[in-house]
Amino acid sequence: MATMASHTPVPDPTVATAAQQLTVGFDLDMTLIDSRPGIKAAYQALSAETGTYVDADAAITRLGPPLEQEIRRWFPEEQVAEISDLYRALYPTHAITGSLAMPGAREAVAAVQRHGGRAIVVTAKYEPNAKLHLAHLDIGADAVIGSLWAEAKAEALRAHGASVYVGDHTGDVRGAQTADALSVAVATGPCDADELRAAGANVLLDDLTGFPAWLEGYVAERARRGA
């Protein structure tokens, strides 16, 4: 979760075009990592620091959208920017070690790389904190782009030539659609399978443990079509 900073994602100059190299984008929270324990602790720390009650148990059921959306539930608009910055500052101390890798997360990223592809993370989370999570959990993404939500994720997906985007939220489906990428949805976050399907997900998986097998078929079809 993060502020939607205004920036233009810069692709790695060594990346081949989408037609030449497989690039798969992944969301972070509730797709690659279960950040609920850590985020709950961070909100509890924020409450202690500010003296303002935040229902941390409720907040962790709404992961996906930018941080400011949640902060507005508890603080007046004129304090949102300041409190969001405070939350992000508290985050490394309270949220990193308590968060877990989702089942199949490392294997999903490794599967992309095993096929000679690049696995990138495109997330609404503040980018430095996203990188801390991935380093702590030893999830070896090739690039991390933060502070992008829903349709805005298409900026990074296009810049890096991603043909697939994997996420758990309807906002991730919209991001994939905007980028003309295949939307692979995992029903591991706040949006259930019916919501993801209704949003237009092209592929629906229970979780990431099924992703490597799906990717095998996808790569074989790309090769058959000469893509």
From TrEMBL:
Gene3D superfamilies reported in the protein's UniProt record: HAD superfamily/HAD-like (3.40.50.1000), Putative phosphatase, domain 2 (1.10.150.240)
Database matches in Pfam families: HAD (PF12710)
Gene Ontology MF term list: hydrolase activity; protein tyrosine kinase activity
Domain of life from the UniProt record: Bacteria
Keyword Hydrolase: yes
Keyword entries, A-Z: Hydrolase
Record carries keyword Acyltransferase: no
GO cellular component terms, A-Z: cytosol
Name of the featured protein: Hydrolase
Species lineage: Bacteria, Bacillati, Actinomycetota, Actinomycetes, Kitasatosporales
